[in-house]
Here is the input.
Amino acid sequence: MSTSGEVLLSQYMAQIRHDVDLALAEVATYSEGCPQVLGDAIRHILLAPGKRLRPMLVLMASDACGERSNVTMASACAVEMIHTYSLIHDDLPAMDDDELRRGRPAVHVAYGEANAILAGDALLAQAFEVITRCEAAAELIVRCLQELTAAAGPCQLVGGQVDDLQAENRVGTAEQLQKIHERKTGAMFRVSLRLGAIAANATNEQIARLDTYGKHLGLAFQIVDDLLDEQGDMQQLGKQTGKDTAQGKLTYPALLGIQESQQLAADLIRQACEQLEPFSETAEPLRQLAYFVLQRNN
Amino acid sequence: MSTSGEVLLSQYMAQIRHDVDLALAEVATYSEGCPQVLGDAIRHILLAPGKRLRPMLVLMASDACGERSNVTMASACAVEMIHTYSLIHDDLPAMDDDELRRGRPAVHVAYGEANAILAGDALLAQAFEVITRCEAAAELIVRCLQELTAAAGPCQLVGGQVDDLQAENRVGTAEQLQKIHERKTGAMFRVSLRLGAIAANATNEQIARLDTYGKHLGLAFQIVDDLLDEQGDMQQLGKQTGKDTAQGKLTYPALLGIQESQQLAADLIRQACEQLEPFSETAEPLRQLAYFVLQRNN
Here is the structure.
């Protein structure tokens, strides 16, 4: 990636983050009937500085397919809300027991366990609500909700997390690990790209290509995540490091070694970008984002 | 209620329970990607014998407005799934810490806390998915999902539970207690009736009347619930009793005394039934159900 490309991507990403943050702040305004502590708990984590990677994929997918629609930004908010709910629940003492998230105390640390469980529950319901409320053709809304509810359900996001928890203190194969992450991380990456494409009225071939791009990107992201947990800087990451090793978790570095894990991530990024070939320069941000994911340090 | 009316209601209710149980069993079949333990945890509680009161309200509302549609049974399943997810999470040690539910060990007792949290999460996403997948006009599906996501969100179901937890060991007024239960119990009662009516293509006046019926019925149900917690039989209820008093919870009997609570519940049931006057005999089951709620012992 050229230096000017890097600058352009960072501007484009900053703009998207800004737009998404504004939209999320609007979703998370206090409404009648919402208890103060619940609203506070939701805002504490939802509006904390995040990478906004999944909403970015939604917007970039719409851009790659030619246009953003009302459904684009609603979907971007929804995928970030679902990601955030999953972080809140994953951090709970009964799950990964993490105390630091997005550079802030985890929700259960700041607001107690009950409020953390309920804040996650509320965000999940609200994520779907945001899409039901957007001004668009009902057929389009239903199609997006079919995709998103399935991705967040027992066979995808939640199923992956269940298997991930069971994989603690266990040996396993690279195949099993891939199956976990295809659901735990991959499902939300893929659905983000699919929603962005569907919102832009993309062809089935475009949707399929972006889906495959998302599948490879998601797995590469998870490998880099494992590497950062082993080698990364806690300050920069805004969350605890070294936990996977301490918990004897099944990870890519533990399974393949550091060098081979790095090589696998690089291969996946290359395969992801191959899927973008038939797209014009409108897919350039997705290309650059893939290399950003490979090189990220937070 | 006459004896023949009682027999008819009990047959009608048994039929609805049977139909709903069949539909729920189909929703909860194991699918690819869903880990065995997650599917087991979901089935453990979702398919346990329950009153199925909320799905019953959906079906009875459709019947009262003249016809059931594809959306009727999908909505009936969805409201029961959301109710069940809320039971799983409410029973957690960090919340009400209940060990018995529907006559079985609570999900976290049988499958561990992490799996209980995740089973609840999965059921919530799946509840909405069931509606997105039903064969009906997209406009109708979107309208139902707008109603249901709002009822399950931070301003209704979840907000009520947050306030209910905060009301432990606290004094409060009957007004505050009503505000909690209008959201914690009432929201799902009301939306069940609204969805049943909407699925039957009801008029706005019919929807509004059934909504008000549900509001009164929900509050009466909660008062009876409080009375049963104080006086009921654990075996018959299939859950622990006496917990509210032990936890110093704000309840109707604690606030108003037993006799006045019983009187309030009876008044609310009368007000609920007044809303049914313009309906023909198609609303008879709803009338009888209201008195069943008042007299229930489980």
Observations:
- Residues 13 and 56 of chain B are 7 Å apart (CA to CA).
- Chain B has one domain: 3-295.
- Chain B touches chain A through 53 residues (CB under 8 Å).
- Chain B has a mean pLDDT of 92.
